[in-house]
Design a protein that fits this description.
This protein is α+β, with helices and mostly antiparallel strands and 184 residues long. It has a single domain, classed as Muramoyl-pentapeptide Carboxypeptidase, domain 2. 32% of the residues lie in helices and 16% in strands. The protein contains 6 helices and 7 strands. Strands 3, 4, 5, 6 and 7 form a 5-stranded antiparallel sheet that branches. It is globular, with a radius of gyration of 16 Å. The chain binds zinc ion (ZN). Zinc ion binds next to strand 4.
Length: 184
């Protein structure tokens, strides 16, 4: 697996692309019971390490979205188009990083209650912003980088790139595109 794989509006994945080492994410009992979440094995292991440290720091984060197949992304995209809601956050099928199995959207428990409203997760996002690189994750769509990443600020979306790349990307405040020298 190439953990530095670049997927965006200029670098699309085939309809057939399925990562080869997906594993089932075991969120705690009661979390989204009808949804099976899958992640790359290494990414999942590092995610669990991060969850544990976050928990000890007082933040009960969980994985809210992980791998999405091309077909599933297509379904989401069509539904959103129909709904006439804001589509700036949602990728077209083939352009979603979620098809790589290398990224997670984060939600959390607060006093035992499941929370996925971004307005209520600022503390968790801040913790992730400051600490996720230690586990190889980056904030993939930072503020003010839409002209490079193609997406507005997404404080919940973290992408695994490995500790070395993540440390440089987060310390320098750059994007994966800039790190790889593939802007535009
Ligand atoms: Zn996401």
């Amino acid at each position: 697996m190439n953990y530095l794989m670049l997927v965006n509006k200029n670098n699309r994945l085939n309809k057939d692309y399925v990562p080869d080492n997906l594993t089932v994410v075991k969120n705690r009992k009661g979390d989204k019971p009808n949804l099976i979440l899958l992640l790359d094995k290494v990414v999942y292991k590092k995610f669990l390490e991060m969850v544990k440290v976050a928990y000890n720091d007082g933040y009960d984060i969980i994985c809210d979205s992980a791998y999405r197949s091309y077909d599933y992304q297509e379904k989401l995209y069509k539904e959103l188009l129909k709904s006439k809601k804001d589509i700036s956050y949602l990728a077209k099928p083939g352009e979603s990083e979620h098809q790589t199995g290398l990224c997670v959207d984060i939600a959390a428990y607060q006093k035992g209650r499941y929370v996925d409203d971004p307005r209520k997760l600022e503390k968790e996002y801040k913790w992730l912003f400051n600490n996720s690189f230690k586990f190889g994750f980056i904030l993939r769509y930072p503020k003010g980088k839409r002209h490079i990443t193609g997406y507005p600020y997404e404080p919940w979306h973290f992408r695994y790139v490995g500790v070395l790349a993540a440390t440089r990307i987060m310390n320098e405040g750059i994007t994966l595109e800039e790190y790889l020298g593939k802007v535009g």
